[in-house]
Amino acid sequence: MMDDEVEMVTIYVMGKRHRVPAGLTIMKAMEYAGHQFRRGAGCRGGFCGACATIYRTKGSYKLQGALACQKIVEDGMYIAQIPFSPAEKKTYNIEELRPDAGVFLEYYPEIARCLSCNTCTKACPQDIMVMDYVQAALRGDVEEAAKLSFDCIGCGLCAVRCPAEIVPYNIGQLARRLYSRHIVGPTEHVLKRVREIEEGRFDEEIEELKTLDREALQERYETRERRL
Ligand code: SF4
Ligand code: SF4
Ligand code: FES
After folding, report:
1. What's the rounded Cα separation, in Å, for the pair 26 and 168?
2. Which of 88, 212, 218, 223 would you label with 95, given CA atoms 20 to 30 Å apart?
3. Residue spans per domain, the chain
């Protein structure tokens, strides 16, 4: 593709200059420039959180975060991927925990160091009120922390920016687990479906699916009934 056929912009990927078509996402632009994503890409649709990216645009002091599969490239963008943010994730048995502030402080005592600086909220590509859910957890308001963090995809961009080295997405995940297990509990429609499975209602259909080849399965998947 020639520069005079389509508008092109200049981006820098880990310091190397590339000319790429305007209008591409960072992920597509990087692939256009010859990068192959073996890590740092999953769903390509803004749901899995695997493609966290930091960037700075020319002349700006701001270091910004985005999902590479969602953010459109801008001219003069300096880009680096953060496909993984090293974080300590605690192991617990959710059945044994109590849904209160004590549990957050026991497993993630660093939340007491929260400076209320709001850096995490500004870093979140999902526009989640991250500081608010961390603060809700600190107060023991499990429901508020669970609801505010509901759209978290675990990209890690909040964690890499937090000056107190808190990992907000682990806090949100614990809140949602506590909320669903100890506050709302399993809903009636889930229990009904589990009963139906146990009674063998879907056995025949499952056996039939097992006989289909990949193309037939794909066709079934694409034409499936969807209730939204
Ligand atoms: S970035 Fe860290 S310290 Fe600042 S509000 Fe968020 S969790 Fe608290
Ligand atoms: S809360 Fe943190 S981990 Fe979750 S989507 Fe926002 S920046 Fe990513
Ligand atoms: S690849 Fe899944 S959110 Fe970008």
Report:
1. 25
2. 88
3. 8-81, 94-184, 191-222
163 lines ligand 1 (CB under 6 A): yes
- Confirm or reject: Cβ of 169 under 6 Å from ligand 2: yes
| Ligand 3 touching residue 69 (CB < 6 A) | yes
pTM of the full structure: 0.85
Instruction: Compute the distance from residue 99 Cα to the ligand 2 centre, in Å.
Output: 22
| Tens of pLDDT, residues 74-102 | 999 999 999 888 898 899 999 999 999 89
**What distance in Å separates the CA atoms of residue 8 and residue 24, rounded to the nearest whole number?**
10
How does pLDDT run across 114-124, given as a tens digit for each residue? Answer: 999 999 999 99
Residues 6+ apart with CB under 8 A from 24: 32, 72, 73
Check pocket membership of 99 for ligand 2, CB cut-off 6 A: no
DSSP for 36-79, please give it: --SSS-SSSSSSS-TTEEEEEETT----EEEETTTPBP-TTEEE
Q: What is the CA radius of gyration of the chain?
A: 22
Q: Determine the Cα–Cα distance for residues 103 and 111; give it in Å rounded to an integer.
A: 11
